[in-house]
Design brief:
Number of domains of chain A: 2
Structural class of chain A: alpha+beta
Largest sheet of chain A: 3 strands, mixed
Bound molecules: zinc ion
CATH class of the largest domain in chain A: Alpha Beta
Distance between the termini of chain A: 39 Å
Shape of chain A: globular
Radius of gyration of chain A: 16 Å
Oligomer: homodimer
CATH superfamily of the largest domain in chain A: Ferric-uptake regulator, C-terminal dimerisarion domain
Order of helices and strands of chain A: HHHEEEEHEH
Largest interface: A-B, 33 and 33 residues
Helix content of chain A: 25-40%
Number of strands of chain A: 5
Low-confidence stretches of chain A: none
Amino acid sequence: MNAPIVNPALTKNQALVFDALNRAEGPMSAYTILDKLRDHGFRAPLQVYRALDKLTEFGMVHRLESLNAFVACAHRESECCGAGHGHGHGTVAFAICESCNQVLEFHDHAVDHLLNDWANGKGFKPSKTTIEIRGVCEKCAA
Amino acid sequence: MNAPIVNPALTKNQALVFDALNRAEGPMSAYTILDKLRDHGFRAPLQVYRALDKLTEFGMVHRLESLNAFVACAHRESECCGAGHGHGHGTVAFAICESCNQVLEFHDHAVDHLLNDWANGKGFKPSKTTIEIRGVCEKCAA
DNA sequence: TGGCACACGTTATAGCATAACGCAATTGAT
DNA sequence: ATCAATTGCGTTATGCTATAACGTGTGCCA
Ligand SMILES: [Zn+2]
Ligand SMILES: [Zn+2]
Ligand SMILES: [Zn+2]
Ligand SMILES: [Zn+2]
């Protein structure tokens, strides 16, 4: 339940990567980000990965395990569950449209509690939980 | 909800890969499997990936997205939720110990229903759902 | 002023996955 | 039986994802 970092000062590279992700319609791979930032001086994957590591640590970016890609966090500030504490209270889930690549980010406290209960029952100590629903969004299903 | 295949006849390569996964303590990457099967004539990654694709389709093997690795299904026959229908009734979840690499596979119908409810509310049509809890198992937490 | 922490840049390498080709075995009509 | 379609197989080559290892520079604070 580590408290997330709030409004950290970003370095130049971190800001560039975060900006690229925010402009993007959907998730981007590290290498796609690299290509978008070549004009800004990026030359090597590590420049992207290092920035992504930090941004993820700050809770500003999420990694989508089933895509090997990254998205900017969709909860700007305190959209739910109280003010200004990012995702510190639980697990984030994603619905990923395989047709238009749109990603919906959401919390489900009930799911979170159920999984935690299961873990407690087994003596398992969770550090990070991944929930990703692949499918087709409402628009694309029409 | 597609009904899973029951007791399909495996080809030689599929049987070898499945066997390797069953013998293993934990998940294995495709390349690790390849190395284990070189003595049996395997020479190229595609031989492994093709077998894994089929075994996954059969529901006999699961891919762990957060590890880029594969495990044999831990529900031999009909351990829960009725007889002989594999995972057709819902989503599988995994608890992955980052210390000993043990993987616990389980269902949670309540979680499944909650996520489906969320999807229904959004008009999202799920095709595959990934739930993976990274952490430390009871033994390793001691 | 020395030591430390941290971001950065670069080169090289490791690890994961698929494209594209051709051949062989199987199946299932006609 | 025969042809066509399907499926699996083997091989080579390639592409995508991620990290190791090295050195540089900068700010901070005993
Ligand atoms: Zn978020
Ligand atoms: Zn869509
Ligand atoms: Zn299973
Ligand atoms: Zn363990």
